[in-house]
Amino acid sequence: MEPVIKISQGDSKWDVRYKVWNYMELKDLSNSPRPVHNRIPNFQGAWEACGKLALMEAFAKSAVVKVDPDKPMQGVRLAALQARKMLLVPTPRLRRGLLNRILPPSGASQKELLVCSSSQVNPQGIREFSVPVGLEDTTPVDIVVVGSVAVSEKGHRIGKGEGFADLEHAAMVCTRAVTESTVVLTVVHDCQVIKIPEELIENHDLSVDFIITPTQIIRTSRQHLKPPGIIWSKTMVGIPVPKEEVLLLTVRTPLRSPLFVLRQLLNPLHYLP
């Protein structure tokens, strides 16, 4: 299918983002919250796309799933809870650790599961229905579901520009929760599937194996490797840890593993309540 959003030679990632956001606003292709700018779009048909993902073999065989907290992935989170899978979600903006496990009440009704599946966008809900997952936890994650602003059939992905999905995945590599072979999926509107120039993709960018839209499932021709770990020079934008601290930790602990440094950076004592 030929992309409806055209990317020009020389466009930057931000050019791509704004072309997608502007198009979706112009064509009224997104639900609340609006406007879609600076967000992972909660596109029309998101629940249908999530339903397709929940029927995939990769999802059916999974026991542990990590799903981003954005609104369009609520259907995947709900399906994971309904299937009694272990559901992991990122800590909002990585301010207090890396991941949380969503724990519905014992014997939860469908209404309660729906609340739990949406609680990731509600800080109070996170505190009520989740427990933090320590960095020492070695439970392997079977599949990862990420939000996207734009993706390509080659597996290239562009997020909303904060880098959290890339950093979360790299951190999970450090904890050995994921590997290069861990399946990464994204759910988007059909218009978000575009041609992303190769030169825009860097080594810290997370690529995807499957794209699920309301109308199709695309197995990408991914060749770009997923992040092999944390690239420290790329990680601190938007995260409340001074870059100087990263350098000091790296210099003072040259024989320590990346996991040791990560543990120090995500220690709650680093952050204000």
From TrEMBL:
GO molecular function, one term: RNA binding
Protein's UniProt keywords contain Heme: no
Gene Ontology CC terms, in alphabetical order: cytoplasm
Listed InterPro entries: FTHF_cligase, FTHF_cligase-like_sf, NagB/RpiA_transferase-like
Positions of transmembrane segments: none
Keyword Oxidoreductase set for record: no
Keywords: RNA-binding
Protein name per UniProt: Methenyltetrahydrofolate synthase domain-containing protein
The species this protein was found in: Danionella cerebrum
